[in-house]
Amino acid sequence: MAQLWGGRFTKETDQLVYNFNASLGFDQKLYKQDITGSMAHAAMLAKQGILTEQEKEEIHDGLKGILADIESGKLEFSPEYEDIHSFVEANLIDRKGDVGKKLHTGRSRNDQVALDMKMYVRDEIAEMDGLLKELLETLLHSMEENLHTYMPGFTHLQKAQPVTAAHHFGAYFEMFKRDRSRLADIKKRLNLCPLGSGALAGTTYPLDRAYTAQLLGFDGPTLNSMDSVADRDYLIELLSALSTIMMHLSRFCEEIIVWNSNEYQFVEIDDGYSTGSSIMPQKKNPDIAELVRGKTGRVYGALISILTTMKGIPLAYNKDMQEDKELTFDAIDTVKGCILLFNGMVSTMEFQKENMEKSAKNGFTNATDAADYLVNHGVPFRDAHGIVGRLVLFCIEKNISLDEMSLEEYQEISPVFQEDIYEAISMKNCVEKRNTIGAPGTEAMKEVLKLHREYLDRN
User: Which residues form a coiled coil (predicted)?
Assistant: First the structure.
């Protein structure tokens, strides 16, 4: 197990220690970023006269060959190498000889891995943003199709006021829109290039760090070499944002699980996103929604893990920081998979519209509108509130809804009620007259849908 750093040591590392220390088993995910960063570094070294143009071309040729062979499967990752950086450099030396040994001039594995992780996260943010945009397109389509799908809105998990499925889905549209904004903010803040910071104190070689940053699509170089190799804030921010995405998905899944239950029957989940029971033939289980809900804890765990790892680390680099990779890779893969499957589930899910509207009526969600009716007829609101409370109590005792009360029964409680009470408390009227921006009325919703479409076309 000859190492790139072996000159200082008089005997080989114990095998157990080597295995514990090695990271190639997981940081091989960074091969593309590692090779891309090395090519930019070689180009900068040549620009500065540290390498000749011929040496740069040989290094580039070797690195391109390694990349092609990895992606074709011709070159496999081998446990004899400690990490992805050693793997790439050793293979370059094998292919190009002494010129390959010059690639590492002016850099350390500390700034190299910092670069690789930033580039990897930047690429993954772009992928996750695309998945979130696809989910928003699905939600927007569902909103457009369900402007008049009436359902109960809830507070305290109790029926409160009538809304529409479009309005309910619109709440999640806002959440996932904010998630995209958070990812974009993280991407902007991380986009400074650490390469050239060395192990912690820069280098005596005349590097052009701004040029390297430009080649790799960064906004510029980092401004403190110690922070450059010790910074994992962007991973903490990313895992926080991913935890928030999962929280939003989990809340949505919880509602779909409830809506899919026999008691609610608001939605029918497509067979492709459900499973059955091994013993109960009648069962159709919302497994995808439950798994997304369950995997939320896994992503939360990654955030807590990296916060705990980083809290006691002095400047600058420490090996503890190697623990950032597995949990970040796993969290990213988990979130991407969950968004993809959730999108498929929601896009194929069918609303049971009659059940939804019936539930809204039976839950007295129009009680507030009955009170507003009295207020509009001169009754003080506090008195109106009490009158409608008596109406609800009467309906509960009779096991009927407000819509099913006779006018005589209304007038026995308050003579103010007239025939037009039935129109005032209809689901359609209760929703449609709420047209301030952000409310569930059709005119308000159409304006919001227009703004959402403009947002998705623009972003």
Answer: none
